[in-house]
UniProtKB/TrEMBL annotation:
Binding, Ca(2+): 525-526, 544, 546
Main location: secreted
GO annotation, biological process: proteolysis
Enzyme class per UniProt: hydrolase
GO molecular function: metal ion binding; serine-type endopeptidase activity; tripeptidyl-peptidase activity
Subcellular localization(s) per the UniProt record: Secreted, Extracellular space
Cofactor: Ca(2+)
Active site residues of this protein: 286 (charge relay system), 290 (charge relay system), 484 (charge relay system)
Signal peptide: 1-19
Highest rank taxon of the organism: Eukaryota
Protein name per its UniProtKB record: tripeptidyl-peptidase II
Keywords: Calcium, Glycoprotein, Hydrolase, Metal-binding, Protease, Secreted, Serine protease, Signal, Virulence, Zymogen
Segments forming domain Peptidase S53: 210-565
């Protein structure tokens, strides 16, 4: 035993001596102001606790990728629709050979070896004990506990990197980003009611209180005819062990889409140890909702449930980056991806938020429309909570995806009070929405002054029905509510437009926002309602874009005409 300790001490001494002196000078890299609300420090992390760290390298040309993305996504551009290939995107993203060499030299000189975990090589994974991480990063890794949930995490409030790696190493994660105490946001359920003996023919008359596919077809002019293009794909993200049940889908179609074969189903992909149990007791409300309102609305569009397990490679991002890297690694990812999960923007560092946002731009440049539910807390964030200033949600603040808010009722539709919306504290207002947002802020005047960032990217971009939505779980019909309903509904509209575009020999819509904001007349403008929170009435809806329902709900015929069909 003594000999073993001496051997370990010798290895530690040799590693320290051999470490390249060029990496000994550290410079502060990221820090946060104090411990996040709800967390308390319990004491220093044990020196031998193993940390699984992810290192993001500086990408070659993020500005060039953004320019290329907007070039192929803006209707007035000569390159509109000429989406980039996998290889072309990776050329923008891959770090320089110098960056790769320097970071690997730093790790190697400290006895460490990293594994590449992204298609373009811009993300690395490396493990090391707390003692070594504290030394290499000038950090103070501490055990923090969340007071309500009891969950513990080892984090630091600041860290540094070698001066020689400035401009080569973008960030280390998880360091200053804390776990999201609410986890990623699933749907908010309304009081559950059991409904029986509903016939498809009777649904349109009851749309004010029971939203079904037939209601959406009537409200938005969504076609019932079957899609024809097998190359057109719709992806549905699945997280936190939410499983999509095929028996429930069959029951749902048998009740609400009697014109569609009840044998219609979906494909499955898994990552991070994901699965899709078909046990009735494990049928997920969120997963069933997302599948039933894609398969059941985007008639005939090939739909894939992408189940992300809990063996995350991206730490506190809980699979959000993993699923994007997974799709970026595919030669033919789905043309539309809908995700009904999210979190408060304040839970992650701005550098990490930018990294994930840039990953969305990569998929967008390749012709993928990325849609997310905006959240269910009004102006108080992903869920209703106490606050003094408005809490934007993530990733809705990212300018390279489409955020979907919620409406309720008919004749007219109005904003659902829970529909999260506002302005990012991380991302600035993108050019495609500059006029729309400026017009709203002018009309808003001094209302809510000082409670939000007027220069931030505004969200949501669009909206769809999100209350009293009928789904089947465990063989029983239930009513649910949330922007989690709205995202798959709007995604289905996009997928049906893509089907017709591909059939006409045209390209799919890809990154949607420049097209959407260029065609505000293609939406049903919502001018009634608001999204209260933080002891305020939140933002009021107004004519045109607003941070409650965005541009409004879809008008399929007008969107089809805007797309040149």
């Amino acid at each position: 035993m003594v000999a073993l300790r001496l051997s370990l001490l010798l290895v530690s001494f040799v590693t320290a001596v051999c470490a390249n002196p060029v990496f000994r000078s550290l410079v502060a890299h990221e820090a946060r102001q104090g411990v996040p609300s709800g967390f308390v420090a319990k004491g220093p992390a044990a020196p031998d606790t193993q940390l699984s760290l992810r290192i993001a390298l500086v990408q070659s040309d993020t500005a060039g990728l953004e320019a290329a993305l907007l070039d192929v996504s803006t209707p007035s551009s000569a390159n509109y629709g000429n989406h980039l290939s996998k290889e072309e995107v990776e050329e923008f993203v891959k770090p320089s050979a110098d960056s790769v060499a320097k970071v690997n030299e730093w790790l190697s000189s400290n006895g460490l070896k990293a594994t590449t975990i992204s298609p373009a090589g811009d993300w690395l994974s490396v493990s090391m004990p707390v003692k070594q991480a504290n030394e290499l990063l000038g950090a103070d890794f501490t055990v923090f506990a969340h007071q309500d949930t009891g969950k513990e995490a080892v984090r630091t409030l600041s860290y540094s990197i070698p001066t020689a790696l400035k401009g080569h190493l973008d960030l280390v994660h998880p360091t200053i980003t804390f776990p999201n105490p609410r986890s990623i946001l699933p749907v908010v359920s309304s009081p559950i009611t059991s409904i029986s003996n509903i016939s498809s023919a009777a649904v349109p008359a009851s749309c004010a209180s029971q939203v079904t596919p037939a209601c959406l077809q009537a409200l938005y002019g969504i076609p019932t005819t079957r899609a024809t293009q097998s190359s057109n794909g719709l992806g549905v993200s699945g997280f936190i062990s939410q499983f999509a049940n095929k028996a429930d889908l069959k029951t749902f179609l048998g009740k609400f889409r009697t014109d569609v074969s009840s044998a219609t189903t979906f494909a499955l992909q898994t990552l991070d140890g994901g699965s899709n149990s078909q046990s009735a007791s494990q049928a997920g409300v969120e997963a069933n909702l997302d599948i039933q309102y894609t398969v059941g609305v985007a008639t005939g569009v090939p739909t894939t449930f992408i189940s992300v397990g809990n063996n995350f490679q991206d730490g506190d991002l809980e699979g959000f980056l993993d699923i994007i890297n997974f799709l970026l690694g595919e030669s033919n990812p789905p043309q539309v991806l809908t995700t009904s999960y999210g979190q408060d923007e304040s839970t992650i560092s701005s550098s990490l938020a930018n990294q994930l946002c840039n990953a969305y731009s990569q998929l967008g440049a390749r012709g993928v429309s990325i849609l997310f539910a905006s959240g269910d807390g009004g102006v108080s964030g992903s869920q209703s909570q106490q606050c003094t200033t408005f809490i934007p949600t993530f990733p809705s603040g990212c300018p390279f995806m489409t955020s979907v808010g919620a409406t309720t009722g008919i004749n007219p539709e109005k904003a659902a009070t829970f529909s999260s919306g506002g302005f990012s504290n991380v991302f600035t207002k993108p050019s495609y929405q500059s006029t729309a947002v400026s017009n709203y802020l002018t009309a808003l005047g001094s209302t809510n002054s000082g409670k939000f960032n007027k220069a931030g990217r505004g969200f949501p971009d669009v909206a769809a029905q999100g209350q009293n939505v009928q789904i089947v779980v465990g063989g029983r019909t239930e009513a649910v509510a949330g922007t989690s309903c709205s995202s798959p509904i709007f995604a289905s509209v996009v997928s049906l437009l893509n089907d017709q575009l591909i059939a006409a020999g045209k390209k799919p819509l890809g990154f949607l926002n420049p097209f959407l904001y260029a065609n505000p007349g293609a939406f049903n403008d919502i001018t009634t309602g608001s999204n209260p929170g933080c002891n305020t009435n939140g933002f009021p809806t107004k004519a045109g874009w607003d941070p409650v329902t965005g541009l409004g709900t879809p008008n399929f015929a007008k969107l089809k005409a805007a797309a040149g069909l």
